[in-house]
Amino acid sequence: MKTFLVFLIFSSSFLQTLQQQQQQQPIKNVVVLVLENRSFDHMLGWMKKSVNPSINGVTGKECNSDSTKQTICFSDDAEYVDPDPGHSFEAVQQQVFGSASIPSMSGFVEQALSMSQNLSQTVMKGFKPQNVPIYASLVSEFAVFDRWFSSIPGPTQPNRLFVYSATSHGSTSHVKKQLAKGYPQQTIFDSLHDNGYNFGIYFQNIPTTLFYRNMRKLKYIFKFHQYDLKFKKDARDGKLPSLSVIEPRYFDLKGLPANDDHPSHDVANGQKLVKEVYETLRGSPQWNETLLVITYDEHGGFYDHVQTPFVNVPNPDGNTGPAPYFFKFDRLGVRVPTIMISPWIKKGTVLSRPNGPTPNSEYEHSSIPATIKKIFNLSSNFLTHRDAWAGTFDQVVGQLNSPRTDCPLVLPDVAPLRKTETDENRGLSEFQGEVVQLAAVLNGDHFLSSFPDETGKKMNVKEAHEYVRDAVSRFIRASKEAMNLGADESAIVDMRSSLTTRSSNP
């Protein structure tokens, strides 16, 4: 009888634990916003002093020297940044290693000096918390990761590819030929679709998720939405899909400023975008089922003091980078700001190392598809060895028994940091040039002899914005028409430059 009672108590306890575990997955909507080119110390490092001492931030004693032994220490007077610091694979190698054989984080000043005299000061500055008030509020209210790394020590495009596919398919930079074809790897969007879950891409200029070839297929064309037309409406109506991806504005125009945080754009506009996204979600009937993740693709050449992980990092899929480095994808990039928001998160949470799945797992961009797989219990395999290894953060939303009711309804107002007028006539950044090339592929212009060397080089920011807007509009419209005419959903509309113009008509 005693044995039977013990068994009953054990069974009851086991069922209770199982029910609690099921209740600990309250998230039905994940929202992801990836901004551009800022390091953790640059954006959030000074919050250690005034927001939360548990954060692995800065004290001001973090310094770098140049070859003449001139030392520059980290300061809190970052404001408007122009020009853009170096963040190519080669530049990051110098920043991270300096003259050492392990990541000493000692080469930022020297690398910046090789580009411009003034840049060495720029890369050693961080923002006062009051100058990024939205982040100061969210860090104190929700969760911040102080050990989240970009996936490779390199530029934007490879890192953005990792966010949704856990690999860059061997790219350590922007590969023009691969762009025209589209990157072939499976994505978390495919996994969600195969498991019957919905997703949406809410874009403002162009969905950079179209760098993945699969995302150009007709079956996904109705997943793309203009952010301004649809995001607030879907949130208000309680119709946000399982995964919502928000893409910021990448071009800086008068009256329509860029809000992606890429230098030379004012981070105040990025703050306004985050405020708008948060307040939209906070007012949605789906708020109690929502998890918002904000991160940055890479560090943009700005200093960070935390050593980048360089041992036991798995190569995602056996690919190796190009000559002369033949990178094995066996170390991570520089730490970037990452904030997580949900009413299921305890106030003032700081996340450092994950609990597995291996003893040396880290939080990095592949943590996003890895966590989405866990939250939605996807039967699809992991995308690569990297997301199978990356730390997941699903457990953070399982620490409370019920959603918080004290989350702020509105966030602080944001003051501009830029004192000069927007210059629509300036040339394109490297990333903007890549976006123009993607638009040229969608438009069919990559068949022209001038692609890709001339496309975008002669454009200013305003012209590029108009070209990209029209190309995306035509591609989406043509794809929807093809679907309505009964075309195979696995097909990709192949636009031809001879059939297109720069007008808004197809």
TrEMBL record:
GO function terms (MF aspect): phosphoric ester hydrolase activity
GO biological process: phosphate-containing compound metabolic process
Entry keywords, A to Z: Hydrolase, Signal
Pfam hit, one: Phosphoesterase
UniProt signal peptide: 1-19
InterPro entries: Alkaline_phosphatase_core_sf, Phosphoesterase
PANTHER family named in the record: NON-SPECIFIC PHOSPHOLIPASE C4-RELATED (PTHR31956), NON-SPECIFIC PHOSPHOLIPASE C6 (PTHR31956:SF2)
Protein family per UniProt: Belongs to the bacterial phospholipase C family.
Annotated protein name in UniProt: Non-specific phospholipase C6
Taxonomic source organism: Penstemon smallii
